[in-house]
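FAQ: What does a multi-protein file look like?

Like this. Sequence, then tokens, then the next protein.
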Amino acid sequence: MDLTEFNQATAQRASETIRPCVDIDRWVEIVVDARPYGTVEELLDTAHHAAAPFEGHEVDAALAHHPRIGERAAGTTAEATLSRGEQSGLRVDTDVTERLAAANAAYEARFNRVFLIRAAGRTSAEILSEIHRRMENTPEREAQEAATQLREIALLRLRGLLSPT
């Protein structure tokens, strides 16, 4: 869908289009209700402000069905397709897969949520480094970092959905 189609779509269709970017009702409603947009940059600016910050309960709800980093998202939903695309650049061999699995398990035990990071543009080594660095965060600081990563993912996905190809 391009920006013109998004602007002209029903609220329901527009919501369905952007919900795979991040499944947070408040964010979807703000972005859809602010239409029409003159440019994709205006749309992204609204989306950024609506996501700054995501509240802890919103992050928790969005992460409830988010795949672990290094694991292939299952299903045919738009969100699963986007996730697979974002992680497609990761070159993951057996050793890295095992290290990511161990790091994910340690992170989940510490913070009681799946580790979230914008994978697009990052290497497996960078992601492993980040998960280890973030294990040192306080729960409060980590909640902020997870919200920031979720916002980055949402904006990246939104740009990809509504930018001309």
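And here is the next protein:
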Amino acid sequence: MTGALDVILLAAAIGCAVANAVEVAAKVMRARFVLDNCTEVGLDTRWVPHLAVVEGAGVVGLLLGFAGVPLIGTAAAVGLVGFFVIAVAVHVRARVLHNIAFPAVFLLLAVGAVGHFV
């Protein structure tokens, strides 16, 4: 059973890196859905570049973890867990629940990435 769990956690970690890389690109390009979501949850869109840097650092850290530095991968995954716990909390606080599945899925992928690296 451990072999199957290892594969699932690796898939989650890879999914986490890919999903966050796509999200960083969307933030950098100031995609309409990113700006609309920020506005809807009450976050000033001036924060978007800063969020992209934080999320991008998580992606780079995950990639370093895959490249043989598991401690950095773990730290990056833990940082992404914190990032998405806050994202889910912001959605709940703003009562924007129609799209809460997105940060929730990203959170679950980040938790899986933590499991992969520890």
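Q: Is there any per-entry metadata?
A: Some entries carry free-text notes. For the entry above: The CA atoms of residues 34 and 60 lie 21 Å apart.
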